[in-house]
Design brief:
It contains 9 helices and 14 strands. The chain has 296 residues and is α/β, with parallel strands linked by helices.
């Protein structure tokens, strides 16, 4: 028997290089112009959107960073986390994504917008399980318009050079980049997970959703003092709300009246007794938010 060429099926195969590890990047550098206040600081059930996003990502990833503009690096709500400051020119989320890829070119980045209050464990589990490390990115298809969602997606190291070329050619939209560069697109099993919140009305609707679609709300008596009275334009009111805690109620009122005081600067009393921000509210409660008093 003579030796012949090795059949193709028996030829040794070149092993695929191991996939890069995945870190988390929560985008919190936007201008929040439509919300008219910092979206990262908006609260649900006593936690800000930024806190919720970081904590959710940290359940699945070894390291999670927050993406910020240079002027936001000293902001206390952001500075408590590891930061990646925008390091490339331009505006919008593409700059945050590119800055992360430049900071750690050896890892892939699971990029999350901070304004996804319904983002779920199911969605992140699916995204990580169905990731394609050979593609530029793995992203969900939006349940609303069928287009890829770049701000709940895994961006691979190879995307760095492609994004640089895309931006150099005046490209700014990461969604269009995903369409043009053959990203792996997933059909989301949790179709509400990608709903984002951009306006005060959308925020109020989201607050109602957190208390249940069938919630009928309840009436609370609210009193305002000092600066808060000036900003609300009233000293008291009876308000119908679905807020379940003082934390949720203050977030709702802050969005409505543009209160400038942070929750950390206030105390709260319910029915004339100091209460925790997580205190469970009941119909007819009287709530007072107590601002700092000069000289006190």
């Amino acid at each position: 028997m003579t030796d012949g060429p090795t059949p193709a099926s028996d030829a040794p195969r070149t092993p695929r290089p191991p996939a890069a590890p995945v870190f988390g990047l929560v985008l919190a550098g936007g201008l929040s112009s439509r919300m008219q206040r910092d979206k990262a600081a908006i609260e649900y059930q006593g936690r800000s959107q930024l806190e919720r996003a970081v904590e959710l990502a940290a359940k699945y990833l070894p390291e999670v960073f927050v993406s910020v503009r240079a002027g936001q690096a000293a902001d206390p709500s952001r500075a408590r986390y590891p930061l990646i400051v925008d390091s490339v020119p331009g505006e919008g989320p593409i700059v945050g994504i590119r800055s992360a890829l430049a900071a750690r070119p050896d890892v892939a980045w699971l990029v999350l917008a901070c304004d996804l209050p319904f983002l779920s464990d199911a969605a992140l589990s699916q995204l990580l399980a169905e990731r394609d490390p050979t593609a530029s990115a793995t992203a969900f298809r939006s349940a609303h318009d069928g287009l890829p969602e770049p701000l709940c997606a895994i961006w691979e190291p190879k995307a760095a050079a492609e994004l640089a070329a895309y931006q150099a050619a005046e490209g700014r939209c990461p969604r269009k980049f995903l369409i043009r560069h053959g990203a792996k697109i997933l059909e989301p099993r949790d179709r509400r997970a990608l709903d984002n919140i951009n306006t005060p009305d959308e925020y109020h609707e989201a607050l109602r959703s957190f208390d249940g679609e069938a919630s009928t709300g309840m009436q609370l008596k609210i009193q305002y003092y000092a600066l808060m009275r000036e900003q609300a334009g009233r000293s008291d009111e009876t308000l119908e709300t679905t807020a379940s805690t003082p934390a949720d109620l203050y977030s709702e009122l802050k969005a409505r009246y543009g209160f400038t005081l942070s929750r950390e600067q206030l105390k709260v009393a319910v029915n004339s007794e100091f209460a925790a921000w997580s205190h469970k509210l009941a119909a007819g409660d009287s709530v007072v938010f107590i601002p700092p008093v000069a000289g006190g």
